[in-house]
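=== Structure Prediction Worksheet ===
Name of assembly: unnamed complex
Input type: mixed (protein and possibly other molecules)
Chain count: two
Listed entries:
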Amino acid sequence: MSWTDWLPLAVLMTSFMAATIIFMLPEQRHVLRSTINLGAACIKLILIVFLIQAVLKQQYPEIRLEVLPGLELILRADSLAILFAGLSSVLWLFTTLYAIGYLENSPNRSRFFGYFSLCVASTMGISLAGNLFTFLIFYELLTLSTYPLVVHRGNAASIKAGRTYLIYTLSGGVVLLLGVAALYALGGDIAFGDIERTAALVGTWPELMTIIFILLIAGLGVKAAIFPFHGWLPTAMVAPAPVSALLHAVAVVKAGAFGIVRVIYDIYGIELSWQQGFLFPIAVLASFTILYGSWRALQQIDIKKRLAYSTVSQVSYILLGISLFGPLGTIGGLVHLLHQGLMKVTLFFCAGNFAETLGIHKIHELDGVGKRMPLTSAAFTVGALGMIGLPPVAGFISKWYLGMGALEANMEWVIFVLIGSSLLNAAYFLPVLKRIWFNPQQGQWPLEVINNNRDAIPLLLIPALVTASLSIAAGLFASSILSPLGWAELITLREYLR
Amino acid sequence: MNMILSPIPWLLVIPLAGATLTMLLPYHWRSAASVVGIFTQLMASVILWYQVTHYGPQFYAMADWQAPLGISLRADGLATLFVLMSSLVASACAFYAHHYLSLHKRANFWPLLWFLWASLNGIWLAADTFNLYVGLELLTFAAVGLVAFASDERSLEASIRYLYAALLGSMAYLLGVALLYGAQGTLAMDSLAETWQWGPTTQVAVTLILGGLLLKTAVFPLHTWLPPAHGGALTPVSALLSALVIKASFYILLRFWIEFQIYQFLPSLSQLLGALGAGAILWGGWMALRQTHLKMVVAYSTVAQIGYMTLMFPLLVAENSEASMLAYQGGILMLLAHAFAKAGMFLAAGNLIFCTGKPDLVSLAGMSRYRPLNIFAFGLAGVSLMGLPPSGGFNAKWMLLQSSFMSGQWWWIVVLLLGSLLSAAYIFRVFAYTYQETDALDTYKRPRLSLELIALSLSGISILLGFASLWPLEMISLPGPVMEALP
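=== Predicted Assembly ===
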């Protein structure tokens, strides 16, 4: 066992240790807590760099622990795992910075940051899981650790949102458990990538394996907010802005989408899924969710609600990409996993800044905010344009590859879905941008914080600016191997060459 | 074997001596004597564990009187695991009680605790059916005494109900054993297993024994005595009762069921037991969801959890040895995880009630801000009880699920999954109360840190079991009478 095999465990442990220490720290130790949080985030990034090096050299660090007879916990870093782990650890750093600024002078920070770290630890576990059993464990742990964050404010609305969140995610978890247990009963412990064994099982029990596929996708679809399982996401937007960032960009919906990628590529295998006709229904469902989410976003007057429905729509791009049989669609779906994360986290940071600095929650209150908060507004604009799919922001790359993938898979109707969604995206983002930049200010701001007429405080502003710049950089430097596109191509190359 | 060398007699002698001593010593010395007793007891359990894992099952005849006259004891893997479990949980509860109870209460608590401990060890180690009866009776009296200890009107009423139910159960058991003796001419478990013959008398005997044990285990619908008794008792007592006492009659039931191979001859009875288990899971969960007092939620959760353990009976099917093995291991793991999780949960609940000074759920508002560590302890136990990963409860549920798949009994899968959702509902309901922020003045009492840490370590063990399940599973799969009787 080489030393790199310990890396996946170390990545997981940095967040777990941070969570444990933070839980034990007294409430008043703010500086120490922030230091531990940021220190853990930086150490994790360094560890991820080592993992990337190993994976580029085609070594796949792996560590196993037998928990039940014939059943192992496996942590393994392959190229797909790195995609998600890398995204989460980069975004975690900035979300932590943002959260430190956002929660300044508010109570219960010890509890908040403890569960926050636990949440990221579970996300790392999800990305590095080497079999469905391990995936399931961390997937459920993610549900448990996000609940305290959703109900953090403790008022009636957040407790109610917490209940909705649990009803959806725990039911989804039970369906997923049923699927995983049934698959284990048929074929034993199947590691990710061992698609020959699943192929043999499909040969023996075609109907049962179809049912299991449906169970797995339905269970994961709840967190991925596929229609009709999306109801929890707009409700959960009562949570504080950093939590929304975590739900929408860093961890939760991504965990669902990532799980679906794992099931299709590394359990059933893309070719088998295509032959069995599993992909077409997913493409239809994803397309419907894309249009439906955009349509609902158009009707919202609350900024965060509009963004929430936009997530419902955007996450389904990932699913659409992987359901288009062919390398280009795969690239489009995987790259959007990263791009959507970067752009959506920017948008939620900005929404939080508007709310914290000027008390703005509704869209009509945004009139003229561009003059008052130019930098935040600029970051918001980058995110919004990226969502519409305008070059050079990253969102354009995703849409380009999705369109090419649709042509490659001979599913021309998908092009119309993409165009329709882009139009709807434009319809719900452009008026917002017009209000920000071109409309004059209407009276007083709802709840202005006295800060000498400046933009948001640096801790809130810098993360938004950095993630906005990253969204542009991901588009501009797309040809580099370490860009999201480069990495998605690497994964696709290894997937289709297998 | 020599008495000095074997830990088996010590496991009975120490608690009995402890009971006598703590009754006679002056108040101030009782705790000190008990601490010494607890450590020797823990040591004896560990030595037993070492001997059983290295040299196989151990037998011991008290004072060298051989069967059928003497008291013969045996320790196979299953018994050893239970000895270890009860030593750990009872020690934790004892230390908790030492800090929790006033000097006067504490002084009277020790003798009862030691009697309880002696009877538990007697039951785990008994090699014949009459010793099991003696153990059950002693256990009943110690437990009823402990429930009455809270000495308010409700707990007295609850303890009287408990006493009647438990006595009825023991009587039925004794009658059954007497009939068995008449029919088979022996009381020893091993010779009964060898010469077992089905006949009308045996059938009546088995029915009586099962009925009595089901009543004492509080299997639905014979559970009504449990919630007031467990919910109304003092906190460390509630933990002992839920974690250990109900397991004693369950253990006897399990030994009978497997060693006399009842499962092979009465498959329809297995399904009936499973149906009772399913009823317990759904009814217990539903009732837990409707309680207004914190400890009653936890008590009804015990009713539901007994249902999970009972589900192992229909899954022990003669035709499928792999499914039976999974059911046996999964059921025991469920029991083990429940022992630690429920003890931790009751102690954490007791701490919360101590903080607010009120037993109801509504007054928990703000607790997750004020006592995060304690809520965390409650939560960890909750994770295991809900059967969410990573925890011993989840691994156990996974094995029961696999066993249901293998034996083709899909209906238990539905029950298992519905049960998890129901338990998540009642546990998160408690959480929702603790997260509420109200304008009420924050006047809370602060419990001692040791009380919170004891709760946390018990809950923590139920989570750690999720990573270390192989260890207890290997232990209960050591060769012994149970393993020989499984298909």
